[in-house]
Amino acid sequence: MKDFQDIPETDSAELSRQRPRVPMRVILPNLVTLMALCSGLTAIRMAFEGRWEFAVGAVLLAAVLDALDGRVARLLKGTSKFGAELDSLADFVNFGVTPALILYIWILKETGSLGWVAALVFAISAALRLARFNVALDDPNKPAWAANFFTGVPAPAGALLVLMPLYWEFLGFLPHWSELAVPISFFVIGVAFLLISTLPTFSGKKVGTRIRRDLVLPLFVIAVLIVALTVSYPFPMLAFATAVYLLSIPFAWRSHRAYARQEKTLSSEDLDDDGEDADLDDLSEKDKSDAG
Question: Residue 250 and residue 197: Cα distance in Å, rounded?
């Protein structure tokens, strides 16, 4: 038997050099995604404990962190396939499963099976919407202006939108009656169909990429004002924001149609130009044949 002392010791520094290392710029966006996932799961706990304000706040925090992780990844050039997959799974939990469970525990359970069906439809619609979004990212034929729009309501916006009845109850406009569980169930199903619909909605991804120098300070003031109002008056701000978002959908549809119409006009003009060039080429060939 070979003596263990005869086995040469491997230099630890050499081993550390051989192991692959992941740069910190790739890890940071994933940490933000995991923080969002923790916030979404905490919202479920708050719902079981009946602490509805904290449950809604945790979903809102998850939505803010979800908006940040992609921007952090692009800013640090730390995008990765692992990060994209983790983000999709976290979004399904935070904006599909969590709002559905919150609403079911809050009032949908009063309807029995109908409330559970509404919760299931919303969670499954969120999963389908995220899967469709991931597939659309690889579409090479998508025009450049399409980046200004989402197809259907995005999952974070849908999660905050479907919780609208909670906001209205906190504001005192919606009583907590068991009779309202049925219409709220149909409202949840309606928002679920908005998630998987083909309605164009404003993306906002390109907003803030370039800011005029004279607008930087006013933008800071507006951002601080929005954060202060949301912290001080969370439910009025959420109710107002979701109402404005619903009203923006018809304007997004009109804007999308205008872009598509403009692209179609430009394409037809290009075809006409190509046709005229072809006619001129045919005419020149005909002249040559006549001359011959």
Answer: 14
